[in-house]
Automatic annotation (TrEMBL):
Its cofactor is K(+); Mg(2+). Residues 9-209 form the YjeF N-terminal domain. CDD domains: YXKO-related. (6S)-NADPHX binds at residues 57-61, 123-129, 134, 152, 252, 318, 369, 435. The gene is nnrD. This is Bifunctional NAD(P)H-hydrate repair enzyme. Catalyzes the dehydration of the S-form of NAD(P)HX at the expense of ADP, which is converted to AMP. Together with NAD(P)HX epimerase, which catalyzes the epimerization of the S- and R-forms, the enzyme allows the repair of both epimers of NAD(P)HX, a damaged form of NAD(P)H that is a result of enzymatic or heat-dependent hydration. Residues 217-488 form the YjeF C-terminal domain. Binds 1 potassium ion per subunit. K(+) binds at residues 58, 119, 155. It comes from Lacihabitans lacunae. Homotetramer.
């Protein structure tokens, strides 16, 4: 799914009105009705609802929502912060009056206790930080004990730019129209957005296809698993090579190898330090162990012909950062066309020696978490929008795919596209979770997925398995092995 900016959403809005001959107030009605549909699935009509409206179209949505909830039997009360009223706001205020729904203009909001507040102050029309009555109202909402549901976007949050240090409504749920906003993908905004719901309102599909954006949100419909050949065998489902583990870190090699096998790969060879084979072999009988001549780390020397025998290679989980020489030889001899996934300590080694970046092969995926990304680029960022620019810049400059792990893992491609992932949960912030992801991506690459597909689909399926694990156990109690067990 594409992520549109506010200018594009306005365009889509205007185009849909023209193309479908639908009045803008009817589009607002459609938005309000999908909002109410989702809202009423979460909250029952016994809960009291206070709707706080601005006077633009977000406020207009709020008035229409008030009327529709009233018709469904909810007790609603509307507060309006006086301002310039949009045309569709005026029509909806008239409709509110016709149904005799109680409302008042507020100069200073004294919030009577209510179960739920619906935030309809500002939507994507916000163009400056909130001040005065708006700021005070937002503070009152955030201090209340009520659950808060934002219409389209928590008021005060800029959809397409950083809102650091602004006054913003802290929503429990955000029900956003048609497409998520870029701001929702930023970890710094997690505290404002709460649980995100996307509500399609039927904007023109043709125009959506035409509009260009760098930003995408991966949903189930974007996932296309490779068909498994009925006559295939372990020789045709790909042979992966994983370079992983060191003394005390063999768990990383075990988790990544097992995840790789579960991803459907035909065979995996795992290259490990000498004398550690027992640990791996006992943990996973299906793995082929290849021991390094080094007792404590991976091999010093690598040759292209040997590496070329594998369909894909992964390096990093648990390898430590001592063997720079071996890592350099590995990259210098890496075959041009073999897909490669680089994770964990291999990323730290690259960060320590950025001159190696030029030796990265063309089909490479890097999977850093934010700390590893910082080491890799040797630079700090002021906010998450800046971090996103750095991520995009790195992918473009080095011609690589880079997946910045976290909630809504961001995958930047050399084309400048960024795909945000929609699956996963806080339970995945657990030791070994990243090793599992490396194994899955490696397995996908070895089976013949393109680097783009392996990155996007690997991250999506890793998150999905994590969501299943959290349902069976809990976000708190799940561990990385549960992600593997729930990969189906
Ligand atoms: N295409 C769609 O997705 C649809 C969106 N709808 C809803 O409309 C809003 C956007 O409405 P808009 O009237 O453009 O803007 P706002 O209501 O967000 O803001 C109103 C107005 O306020 C002024 N303003 C901006 N910042 C400030 C500030 N800090 N202090 C004071 N005043 C401010 C500015 O002039 C704005 O224009 C969208 O989010 C949806 O909720 C439709 O209902 C359906 C189609
Ligand atoms: K809002």
């Amino acid at each position: 799914m594409k992520i549109f900016n506010s200018e594009q959403l306005r365009l889509l809005d205007a185009y849909t009105i023209k193309e479908k001959g639908i009045a803008s107030v009817d589009l607002m009605e459609r938005a309000a009705s999908v909002f109410v549909e989702i809202f009423s699935e979460i909250f029952g009509a016994e809960e009291s609802v206070r709707i706080i409206c601005g006077t633009g179209n977000n406020g207009g949505d709020g008035l229409a929502v008030a009327r529709l909830l009233h018709q469904k039997g909810y007790t609603v009360f509307v507060d309006i912060i006086n301002g310039n009223e949009s045309a569709d706001f005026k029509i909806n205020l008239e409709r509110l009056n016709q149904q005799q729904i109680p409302w008042q203009y507020v100069a200073e909001l004294k919030l009577a206790p209510t179960d739920i507040i619906i935030d309809a102050i500002f939507g994507f029309g916000i163009n400056r930080p909130t001040t005065g009555i708006y700021q005070k109202t937002i503070a009152a909402i955030n201090e209340s004990k009520s659950k808060v549901v934002a219409i389209d976007i928590p008021s005060g949050l800029f959809p397409d730019a950083s809102s650091e240090n602004h006054s913003i409504v802290k929503a429990t749920h955000t029900i956003s129209f048609e497409s998520p906003k870029l701001a929702f993908m930023m970890p710094e905004n997690d505290k404002w957005v709460g649980k995100l719901h996307i509500a399609p309102i039927g904007l023109s599909e043709q125009k959506k296809a035409e509009l260009k954006t760098d930003y995408h949100y991966t949903l189930k419909a974007d996932i296309k698993p490779l068909a498994r050949e009925q006559f295939g065998h372990k020789g045709t489902f790909g042979h992966a090579l994983l370079i992983a583990g060191s003394k005390g870190m063999m768990g990383a090699a075990v988790l990544a190898s097992k995840a790789c096998l579960r991803s459907g790969v035909g065979k995996i060879t795992t290259h490990i330090p000498r004398d550690t084979a027992q640990i791996l072999q006992i943990s996973i009988p299906e793995v082929i162990c290849q021991e390094s001549e080094n007792k404590s780390c991976f091999s010093e020397s690598w040759n292209t012909d040997t590496l070329q025998k594998y369909d894909a290679v992964g390096i990093g989980p648990g390898i430590g950062t001592k063997n720079m020489n071996g890592f350099e030889n590995f990259l210098l001899n890496f075959p041009t066309n073999t897909p490669l996934v680089i994770d964990a300590d291999a990323i730290n080694l690259l960060g320590e020696n950025p001159s190696l970046l030029k030796y990265l092969p063309r089909n490479v995926i890097l999977t850093p978490h934010p700390k590893e990304f910082k080491t890799l680029i040797g630079q700090l960022w002021e906010n998450d929008f800046e971090k996103l620019e750095l991520l995009k810049g790195f992918a473009i400059k080095n011609g690589v795919i880079i997946c910045l792990k976290g909630h809504y893992t961001a995958m930047a491609l050399p084309s400048g596209e960024v795909h945000f992932n929609s699956t996963g949960n806080s339970g995945m912030g657990t030791a070994g979770s990243g090793d599992v992801l490396t194994g899955i991506i490696l397995g996908f690459l070895a089976q013949g997925y393109s680097v783009k597909e392996a990155a996007i689909q690997g991250v999506y399926e890793h998150g999905l398995a994590g969501d299943r694990a959290a349902t069976k156990r809990s976000e708190r109690a799940m561990i990385a092995s549960d992600i593997i067990e729930n990969f189906i």
